[in-house]
Each structure stands twice: as structure tokens, then as C-alpha cells.
């Protein structure tokens, strides 16, 4: 592996999260499936916003959350994502840079506005996301800086960005550059509904060179169209170097070759909002892995980071994760 400038470069949809507490009746009235991620147009975005109650606006996006988590843990983090040169674009850029993440992607000068995601949180702490991608769809291969990718130990990509063709092209370019530089490529499947849309393409991309895969139990089952976790686990084991399968309150399973590492869930906090749990799990694992920790240690860091983010509203850490990990693990 070559010398690195960044532990992790994260590529994804640059989105400002608009988080609102709602009840289950709201989901029913709006014909929304709990825990799903729905892509919506600008008109639907305005309609939902008019019906929501009070909200909190926080810079988000799955890979952006992961990048911020890596930085909070003390890692060297870079982010690639597209925003417009508008007010929300200013908010996003300021927030991610203030969190310690390097962010150099040129902003769009025209076209769609900066993306926003309406994160609807029910009393049971589950979240349903409705996302207007806006400027996100403008990210393409020209936004991939070969020098940055080649100098990143892991290039991490979110499955949500597979929807636009430009995102696919950006992923393929970044993966090629990373492997030519003898660095690793990581993918998160993001959402079972996303997997349903692009199952065969995801499998081809994974088999073609994803080194570290992140998925929850539903996503990995959807990928291989099975109701049995062990069937999906055996299928993915031979396709990637490492697979991290999260199982909510049952913890997670980390696979590498014939090795299985079971990681217990961190139950030290009360669940307030599950938004960002998977994103911060990825932060913890990637930080640990790129800094020489074992699979078990990396999984433990991931579990602690995920637990912290579900203890409050919002998908980014509310405390210094480096200090938290030091107090918990030494």
C-alpha cells in the first residue's frame, strides 16, 4: 500500500437533513413505508415540508456523515459530493469542513438546488427518509480527483449515489484509480429498496473489486434474494475481503475469509433517533481498520460510534468520538 494522505475518502450525496418528529399516522396519510428511503422531486419536497411540524436542519448525507465520524475519531477524512452555490450549499460546506473533513468538490454554478432529505422520526425512533437529490445528480467522474483517491487508504462509496448515471461513472473511475494505487475500495449498500433497484449492477460492481462491504441484514438478504442470513453471508464471503453486516440490537457480524467476528451491540444509551447508525458504524470500522486495529477492535469502535449517534437527534456525533473511544477502550 502506498503512502496515504487520507485514511478515508467518502463519496456520496451531499444533502442537508431536515429532521422532524412525526407519528405513524403521518406516514399512513402520506403513503410512506416506515424505514424506507424515497427519492422525490422538488414539488413533492415542497409539499412534504408544508405538512411537517417543526424541524432541525443539519448537514447530512450518508457518506458525509461517515466522513464526519472518521474525523471525530481523529482520522484523516476527505469528502467528495456536489452542492450548488446557494444557501444550503454554504451550510453544507461550512458544517463538513468545521467537523474536520477536507472538502474540495467544486460547487455547481447553475441548475438544481442543493439536495435536502426530510428525515421523519416516529416515536419508536425509526426514520423514514424522503430525499430531493437536487445538485447531487450533477456529481460525475470529473469530480473525482485521481491524486486524492490514490492517496486514500480506503475510498468509501454510498449505494444511494448509484441512481444517477454520473454517480455510477464516478464510482467506477474512483475504484479503478484506488486499485491501481493498491488502495482499498469500500461500498455500503445503503438501503434494501436501493438494492432492489440495482441488484445485478451491485453484484457486478462488488464482484469486480469491492474490498470492504457494509450492509445491514435486510440489505444483504435482498442482494442475494434470500430470507436466510447464513445463505447471504456465505454468498458474500467469497466476493469481498471484508464484509460488515449490522443487525440492529443484535450487534454485527464481521467476515474475513473463514473468520467470523461477532460484535455485541452497545446498549449503554437510550435510542432517540436511528438516523446515521449505519453511517457511524462505517466510520468506526474504517477508522479502526485504517489505523491498525484488529477486526474485533474496529467492530467495537464501530458499535460505540453507532450507539452515540442514535442517542440524540441528528446523524452526526454530538460528542468528540476520539475522547469517547479513549474513555471506553483506552
Please give a structural write-up.
The chain has 330 residues and is of the alpha/beta class. The protein has one domain (6-329): Ribokinase (UDP-N-acetylmuramoyl-L-alanine:D-glutamate ligase, 3-Layer(aba) Sandwich). Helix content is 39%, strand content 22%. The chain contains twelve helices and 14 strands. The protein has helices at residues 24-29, 42-51, 62-72, 87-98, 146-150, 165-180, 192-207, 217-223, 229-237, 277-290, 295-309, 321-329; strands spanning 6-11, 15-21, 37-39, 56-60, 77-80, 102-103, 115-121, 127-132, 152-158, 184-188, 212-216, 242-246, 252-256, 259-263. The strands form two sheets. Strands 6-5-1-9-10-11-12-13-14 form a nine-stranded mixed beta sheet, with helices on both faces. A five-stranded mixed beta sheet has the order 3-8-7-2-4. Helix 3 (62-72) crosses helix 10. The longest helix is centred in the middle third of the chain and has 16 residues, at 165-180. The radius of gyration is 18 Å and the shape is globular. The relative contact order is 0.15. The model has no long low-confidence stretch (mean pLDDT 93).
